[in-house]
Automatic annotation (TrEMBL):
Residues 425-676 form the G-protein coupled receptors family 2 profile domain. It comes from the Eukaryota. GO terms for molecular function: G protein-coupled receptor activity. Keywords: Disulfide bond, Membrane, Transmembrane, Transmembrane helix. It comes from Oncorhynchus kisutch. This is Adhesion G protein-coupled receptor G3-like. One of its GO terms (biological process) is adenylate cyclase-activating G protein-coupled receptor signaling pathway. GO terms for cellular component: plasma membrane. Its main location: membrane. Residues 269-416 form the GAIN-B domain.
């Protein structure tokens, strides 16, 4: 005997619904869950391989006026009438209208491998009317105690598509085949979280193509003229009229590819341009798709979008110029590509930067730096100003505060130092810095805690030098640890503080030499507010330099490569020109002045020694040697081994500097102790006079006179 369709449905309802679902609802208490004024399309999806389709269409709850026990919820019997029940068999699909009261309560259910795939329209999600009920997903069977429950209050909890589907939904081309863009697909598996796919492809192809002749921009050897490329960027605004009603257009000028997009005043937002390997460009609305399908991208921030609109900008254009003419330095450009970005208005000083990202980059054997060019001149004049370089594994991101031409310049790193040398130098440096900090700290303790008398000008200058060197050693010891933390802000701070400490140390070396010179000439007493001026020069001037470099974003993470492929990271200045100009250039000036004064003082010591020999007053040679060594460290001449080492002498110079630097704090402590001795039970400070040492004849240690 063959059952009719209605008979089959009644049979299914009697077999499945009476035995399983009614008991489940009564025991689990699905309930309306909401105030009756909030009309919902509640759908229960059950598992039965013998039938696929709507078992029962739901009816809305009666009016509250008809409730004999009205307390804001439907009774279980009324809920049964309200509930729409759908059976989904294995490897079957049903797409029937479920609830007559709700026009948007239409969806498609498919079950594959014990997982449900529910296709919903965008309207069904946005109206927030649809609630889906399932058995507990672990078994997907209709057992009352195994309904999908809220573990807090053990009430049955529905799946609400509006809480899962939306802007964060990912696109899957295979799942969305033959589906409209305004479709979502809920995936509910036996185990794992509920996910939602969108069929709205985030990769937007251009609405139209505009092909233009390259003209004279491309030379016969394939090199693109930089000045003509700049003109091409300026002329992008003339292409807006050719676009008509189209919002986006692909631009092609010979080898130059790009994309032009109109700006819309009612929808300012970030715009992501993705470059495919064949240099075709698309606008991408999803970050995951951008990383998955494109190896290069440009993000124009909402801030730049708003700024352009406020300045009457109407478009944003991105062009990629392969093989652009090189600058005078013949710099190597990553992939030979220069990216030009134009937005129809002058954009600068952005806080939310323009990001140019290259993924899957092979940069082994090179240092990379993000650079920009303002488009002026016949050849590019690359600068790192306004661009921050971020490296992560095999990707490079340029974060720039302005719009212009951008490129990633690559330069071979210095010859890699051996891993054994790095380990040895690190060991020596850490021990040396620790010893120096100990003796410097001891001298400062003696000065501020034990000494009770007024300090001389020379002692005050020496104490400030101790402070600068103490901070320099401390920041050096902690720099590598902070660099390993991976925090950009912390790295910038420690790099700036260490640089400030180093510049302050150099400045106090210079002040020591200047004070020594003035003492030789007996002129310090004639300078008004002498120490105040010394403090300003010693602490304020280095701070101004560091503040400027902070504004230029010159402090970042750098790596020192070793011959075993590993690297040592620290926070410092990666711009080689800043390093040579500010650090080496400044120390070179300090070195010339301090070396000159050192020669003068040593000559004076030798002259005084001869004079004392003639008067039968011969100082021990050891005392003169100690004085000269003290001067070497006092004037910072040993730092020349680190800054002026080149060629085959680089590594030996590093060892010499590291060893000498280990003794710097010790010798400076001895000098301080000998020139500021503490004697007697009352611990009064007695300064040495001309009879105690030869050097005291030159370096007047008399107490400061009040002005």
């Amino acid at each position: 005997m063959t059952l009719s369709s209605d008979g089959l449905r009644l049979s299914m309802e009697g077999k499945l619904w009476r035995i399983c679902l009614t008991t489940a609802i009564l025991l689990c208490g699905i309930g309306c869950q909401n105030n009756s004024s909030e009309r919902r399309c509640n759908v229960l999806i059950v598992n039965d391989d013998t039938y696929s389709g709507v078992i029962r269409n739901g009816n809305d709850c009666p009016s509250p006026n008809n409730f004999s026990d009205w307390k804001g919820n439907c009774t279980p019997q009324q809920e049964i009438q309200r509930l729409c029940i759908i059976s989904a068999g294995e490897n079957t699909t049903t797409s029937e209208k479920c609830h007559p009261e709700f026009p948007n309560c239409t969806f498609e259910v498919r079950k594959d491998n014990n997982s449900y795939f529910i296709t919903l329209s965008k309207d069904a999600v946005n109206t927030q009317e649809l609630h889906l009920w399932f058995p507990l997903r672990k078994n997907m069977t209709c057992i009352p105690s195994q309904f999908y429950q809220n573990t807090t209050d053990y009430l049955t909890t529905p799946v609400k598509p509006e809480t899962i589907c939306g802007m964060k939904s990912t696109y899957d081309a295979a799942a969305c085949r033959n589906k409209t863009p305004d479709t979502f697909i809920l995936e509910i598996t036996a185990e794992g979280p509920i996910s939602c796919l969108t069929c709205n492809n985030p990769v937007k192809k251009p609405d139209m193509n505009i092909s233009l002749p390259s003209g004279q921009m491309e030379s016969s050897n394939g090199v693109i003229s930089a000045d003509l490329a700049s003109e091409a960027m300026k002329n992008l605004s003339s292409l807006i009229e050719l676009m008509g009603n189209a919002s986006t257009a692909a631009i092609s000028m010979g080898k130059v590819k790009g994309l032009l997009s109109k700006l819309h005043k009612d929808d300012p937002k970030d715009i992501n341009f993705g470059f495919s390997p064949n240099k075709d460009m698309s606008i991408v609305e999803d970050k995951n798709a951008l990383n998955k399908y494109f190896n290069r991208s440009v993000r124009v921030s909402k801030e730049a979008y708003d700024m352009a609109l406020n300045k009457s900008g109407t478009f944003v254009g991105v062009l990629v110029f392969p093989s652009m003419s090189q600058d005078e330095k013949k710099s190597i450009v990553l992939n030979g590509e220069v990216v030009g970005i134009e937005i129809g208005a002058h954009i600068a000083n952005l806080t939310d930067t323009i990001d140019i990202e290259y993924r899957n980059v092979d940069k082994v054997g090179f240092n990379v730096f993000c650079n920009s060019w303002n488009g002026k001149g016949k050849l590019p004049n690359w600068t790192t100003d306004g661009c921050q370089t971020l490296e992560s594994n095999n990707s490079i991101t340029c974060q720039c505060t302005h719009l212009s031409f951008f490129a990633i310049l690559m330069s071979p790193p210095p010859k890699n130092i051996s891993a054994s040398d790095v380990a040895s130098l690190t060991y020596i440096s850490y021990i040396g810095c620790g010893l120096s900090m100990f003796f410097l700290g001891t001298a400062l303790f003696m000065q501020f805690v034990i000494s009770k008398t007024k300090s001389s000008q020379a002692t005050k200058i020496l104490v400030n030098l101790f402070l600068a060197m103490l901070f320099l050693n401390l920041t050096f010891l902690t720099n590598e640890t902070i660099a390993a933390m991976g925090s950009y802000v912390a790295c910038v701070i420690i790099g700036a503080v260490m640089h400030y400490s180093m510049l302050s140390t150099f400045t106090w070396f210079l002040i020591e030499a200047v004070h020594l010179f003035l003492q030789l000439k007996k002129r310090t007493a004639n300078i008004k507010h002498y120490m105040l001026k010394v403090y300003v020069v010693g602490w304020v001037l280095p701070a101004l330099v560091v503040i400027v470099l902070l504004g230029l974003q010159k402090y970042t993470l750098m790596s020192i490569q070793t011959d075993d492929g590993k690297s040592v990271k620290m926070c410092w200045i990666t711009d080689i020109y800043i390093h040579y100009g500010v650090n080496i250039g400044y120390y070179a000036l300090v070195f010339v002045w301090t070396l000159t004064n050192f020669i003068i003082v040593v000559r004076q010591i030798l002259i005084l020694r001869k004079t004392n020999v003639g008067k039968c007053k011969n100082d021990p040679a050891s005392k003169n040697t100690l004085t000269i060594l003290g001067l070497l460290f006092l004037l910072g001449l040993t730092w020349g081994f680190a800054f002026f080492s080149y060629g085959p002498m680089v590594i030996p110079s590093y060892y010499i500097f590291s060893i000498l630097n280990s003794f710097q704090g010790f010798f400076l402590f001895l000098y301080y102790y000998n020139t500021n001795k503490i004697v007697g039970d009352d611990r009064n400070s007695v300064f040495t006079n001309q009879s105690t040492s030869t050097f005291s004849n030159i370096y007047d240690d008399s107490p400061v006179h009040k002005k």
